[in-house]
Amino acid sequence: MSTTTTKVPLERKVLSENDRLAAELRAEFARHGIRCLNLISSPGSGKTALLERTLGAFDPAMRVAVLTGDIQTDADARRLERYGFPVRQITTAGACHLDARMVAKALEGWDLAQLDLLFIENVGNLVCPTSYDLGEVAKVVLLSVAEGEEKPLKYPGIFFKSKLMVLTKIDLLPYVPFRLDDAIANARAIQPDIEILRVSNTTGEGLETWMEWLRRPA
Amino acid sequence: MHELGIANSILEAVKTELQPHPGARPVRIAVTVGALSGVDRDSLAFCFEAIVKGTPFELLALDLKEAAADELQLTCLELEEPTP
To answer: Which structural domain range is residue A139 located in?
Structure first.
């Protein structure tokens, strides 16, 4: 039997199934007027600490919830649930990122009509979470001054896709060789439109501008 | 790190695209990988080889092409189809 070779042209994203689910989530968030933010950074850059500060500063009537992702343990959820807002841990059991299916599953049983703001704290990783749309209105990347100012150049994907970069641990600036201006220039070289804030979760410096950013209409 | 998941997504997509072509053997799948996609091509090629080994897809070649920005797309599937 002879064979013929056929070329089938495709125009299909590799992650089309994730993107389809993410689009459903995005539509659902929009329908309920929920602003969903996807927080991404290296492990230990201060995502959980920033959320602790943020939840602690909110009025108890604020309609906010948090999904927090980790490979193992519910330690972050336990840190965050002390503030009285709904918090759920997503344990990925090995996966280095959250995907839209995990988010959809974690939201089951929550009345989205009761929410205005949803934080998704991704697994600590600057690479893999970049590829997975979670239905968020914006990605927020955190970079601590204890890391390095060249990180936006080394991990361009996440800085390219983020609306906001939060420089964290700025109270450490006198003690580390981090060049703030270079970090900002590097981030803007990758994403000219990126907004940049500087905060210290320890001293509270800069947190007011972050809270203001959260209040600003998307 | 997540290239294994991406490799699985590519294989699943190939299986879906094969459905309208009964009896066809997939020869080559072309995928464009943008420099800002967060996906490493060498690592993806390695993972893909690992997951097709010992399966009916063992001879399917993964053809990775450089692309702009964060593109991560399947662009062409080459099949060998039995001539009637």
So the answer is: 17-215
